[in-house]
Description:
The complex is a heterotrimer.
Chain A: H1 6-10, H2 17-27, E1 32-38, H3 45-64, E2 73-79, H4 84-97, E3 102-105, H5 109-121, E4 126-128, E5 141-143, H6 148-152, H7 155-162, E6 167-173, H8 176-191, E7 195-202, H9 210-219, E8 223-227, H10 232-242, E9 252-254, H11 259-265, H12 267-270, E10 274-277, H13 286-299, H14 308-327, H15 332-339, E11 343-346, E12 349-353, E13 360-361, E14 365-369, E15 375-380, E16 402-403, E17 406-407
Parallel strand pairs in A: 1-2, 1-3, 3-4, 4-5, 6-7, 6-8, 8-9, 9-10
Antiparallel strand pairs in A: 10-14, 11-12, 12-13, 14-15, 16-17
Chain B: H1 2-22, H2 29-54, H3 62-79, H4 82-85, H5 95-99, H6 125-149, H7 155-174, H8 176-179, E1 192-193, E2 196-197, H9 203-225, H10 227-237, H11 239-244, H12 249-275, H13 285-298, H14 303-321, H15 330-344, H16 348-381
Antiparallel strand pairs in B: 1-2
Helix pairs in contact in B: 1-9, 2-9, 2-12, 2-13, 2-14, 3-6, 3-12, 6-12, 9-12, 10-12, 13-14, 13-16, 14-15, 14-16
Chain C: H1 2-29, H2 36-54, H3 58-79, H4 88-107, E1 138-141, E2 144-147, H5 148-170, H6 172-182, H7 184-189, H8 194-217, H9 228-241, H10 246-266, H11 269-286
Antiparallel strand pairs in C: 1-2
Helix pairs in contact in C: 1-5, 1-8, 1-9, 1-10, 2-3, 2-8, 3-8, 5-6, 6-8, 9-10, 10-11
Amino acid sequence: MSMTRRTMLSVSAASLAAPYFFTRSAQAAGPIKVGVLFSLTGGLSIIEKSLRDATMMAIAEVNAAGGVGGRQIEAIVEDGASDPKTYNEKASKLVIRDKCVTVFGSYTSASRKAVLPVFEKRKNLYVYPTFYEGFECSKNVIYTNAVPNQQLSNFIPWISKTLGKKKFFIVGSNYVYPREMAKVSKILIQQQGGEYVADEYLELGDSEWGSMVNKIKNSGCDAVISNVVGDSIVAFYREFKNQGLSQDKIPICASVTSEIEIAAMGPEYAAGSYSSFPYLMAIDTDANKSFIERYRKFVNDPKAVTHSPLQSAYMGVFLWKQACEKAGELEPLAIRDAFKGQEMDAPIGRVKIDGENLHTYLTPRIAQWGADGQGKIVDEYKEPLRPLPYAAYGETADNLFCKESGLDSSKLKL
Amino acid sequence: MQATKLRLNLAVYLIFIACILLAPMFLEEFALNRLAKFLVFGMLGVAIALSWGYAGILNLGQGLFFGLGAYMLGMSLKLASPTSMAQGSDTPVPDFMLWNAEPGSKTDLCCINGGSWLWIPFQSHWFGILMGMALPTLVAFGLGTVVFRKRIAGVFVSVITLACVLLVRLLIVDAQPLTNGWNGLTDLGVLTIGETEFDPYSATTYYLVAISLSVTLILGRLLTETRSGMILQAIRDDYNRARYLGFEVSSFQVFFFCASALIAGYAGMLYVIVAEFASPSFMELSFSITMVVWAAVGGRGSLIGACIGALLINVIETSVSETPALVEAWKVIIGLIFVLVVLFMPQGIAGLASSVTDRALERFSGRAARLRQADSQHQPAE
Amino acid sequence: MVDTLFIGLSVGSVLLLVALGLAITYGAMGVINMAHGEMVMLGAYTTVMTSTWLGLGIWWSLPIAFVVTALVGLLIERLIIRRLYGRLLDTLLATWGVAILIQQMIRLEFGLSFFGIHIQGLGPGLQNMSIPDVLAGTINIFGAEFNKYRVFMILVCALMTGVTWFIMYKTSVGMQVRAIIRNARMAAACGIDVKRVNALTFAFGSGLAGVAGVLMAGFKTVFPDMSTPMVVDGFLVVVVGGIGSLIGSILAAGLLGQVNALVAWGHNDVIARAVVFAVVILTIVLKPNGLFAYKRR
């Protein structure tokens, strides 16, 4: 395996010829530096710590299996402290000072947006493991989780056809992702001949659900689409049941409620509700069972749960390894190019990186939560679905907006 | 002795300013950018010290002014970004406006969504800069006039400012079509004035920040030495006495409240230049309280003390949080520092330095006196 | 409409539960305890721990959490608050540091996570506290359906307020506390052991927060910074109500709760919160000492 060390220096404008050769020979056998940037303190550490753990587990596994092209990976872990300011600061440290060739990080869009300028201007690479709202076409980010079309395009038709629901109450936390999900949902609801009775938001992190659930109760809807995020989810489901609403009559159909929140709210509150994710702990394959088992061992917690971003964080490292080996060098943009079309068998099943928009082909799945806290997969797309980050604006698989060359904004329909 | 102290104080200012101006000779680009961010925080420390230390107004919502300054310049820079330029319309249009657009509306700043016309003047960087200073000052003027005319003081001022910053943050997050809500303004262009580009990692930008801070320090120090500065301190020390002496107390308070807001707004603009984004997190309560802690650590009664306090805490924070063994525990250490400083160094570093110099001067002048005494005793013996 | 008023009442009672302890410590001792929210959080964690490790339900958690948080409060008073009397704003900063410390200790499982030891019920994640069947679902009162858990919260809140009132106005300790609120030095001159009474007051205030934490655990979710927004809300209630005034806090909590519920019902939740902040600002501007100022002498 021949790997040049161009990378280490391509970003450092100040380096002179002499240190170049020195660095080159000294680094040739040294480890490959990558950054791992998640919040280990502050409110978001609830989820982001598990993403850090999954990334570190994947790195440990790659290293144990001989590393990348024979070289070990050295992970530099930084704490984003649940604050975009810190994220921005640490990202530039990882890219400029530590000269990492790739950084794995972020859970929220706010933190991704805050670090993007660093990666775009410094021609570096960011691997982002969370489902998000789409409408982004960066050439310096690999998106390893879903965009709205991969979470909703079979969810709403399924609710409408299989469950026979027609009147939807859309509720979410007040920020970009839930609002974009609501927009895509409305399009799909109309296509199904249904209607939405309300589109309401609660401040992020607010958990006083009394008024909202009361509104749902009086709205006459027959299903709730929930894009509620974070710890508010738990309070929502509890209030829902405590105000006497039943998941049998008015099911909550959620895009963010994952195994973590289900475990935290007490399974009896979610029993009968639905979630749509490409990855669910309930995927019944040996690969997934082994993954869950290894993760629990890694974090030394026999009750630990896995969830969709966690799986993507894990899978991202392996895809990155393949890309590095294909690129044959450690220049971030060369790795980016090698990412295109990369495929692997992850715990989630077969995945593939789209060559045009650098998002991931994923299989949409719908789960119904049982009284034991386990999801049961009730519907599954037949094959991995192409990611369309601009689906809400008319993007289709035949008419891509975000291409290899960049975003074609003339196609955006308002 | 007072004169010696004043000279020493002046020396500290000069040494500090010399240090920050010479820093680019020793630092690589990343360290320079990081230091620039810290200097911006130092400027916030100065703003807090001015209102808290000199006027006795503990503002728990300083983030409001910082955030407003940041958003004003951020809007200008957002319109200057390549993405906003390339929307195929006559005016640049921020990308997030497209996804918040009213269906079927024209892609143009005038009418893409309700209120987007407010952005039109921000196409000029000068307008953004002007607003970045004017808006925080105006808001502070309005707020200050109401609060200080009503003779609201102490903790009640803190609560009002706190409620204000939370209220504005809520509104900014809610007005997503205009502000991009929670995600804030990102993907910004580079500020260009004339031929000069302020790239965040360049020495030019660093100098902009360092010189701004130096000027702020000097002007702030001069301001506190003026008559109005003296009156202000009299108000802080005894509100009623100052009032009975016939001073229009509230106007002095409003003036210094505005000055503090102006500095914070200006710091917000500088932060947008060095960090390349503006976000509602600037208006989170924890950030505003953190600023106050910087000033407390540095010494609330001293402008330069508060500035150094901000720098110091940030240096400690980054170096502790970037030590691999402490990456999860650094907040414990920061929390401990806060508690210990408040308990054992009530006047902060500046207070400590001041009492140390006092003692040294006393000892020095004491020894000099003793020597003189010894001399005079010797002389008759000769 | 009855629904909305009921929700307003329950929102107000949640606010009051958090604010009650703050009102006492702030009024009597001149301490702005930013770590008060962390006491709520500790109360919630006590509930989680007693149910996972001892198998005890919410009924037992109420007194246990009260005792645990009261003891922690006593410790904080001894170590920190005692040194800061008379320095109102310094107490705010020091307790802010304490809040960061407590949060991070829970997250790091008191440092054990460094040794790879994991304690069920601690750590950075979300914790689960199940509530007994008696409190789940709805109850029918005069033909209207009410959320049982909220009814329970309102009752506990009323009970705690009653107990606080009784202690403050019917016991000798309470009389001493009221004397200190009026004029601490005169109280000391009359032979009241101000230090001891203050320590007890702080412990009692913390204990009340602990009880609030138990109720929160069954209502929201339990995680290390669950209470950061609560302390701000509690603080606003105290200031609007008038420092040192029990009745003021009760009315302010009721007012803000109803404003929140009514606006949320008419418009939406985000506007409701904005209106609450606006009401707070207006109240202070119009009545600078709060709705019910307690006269100090």
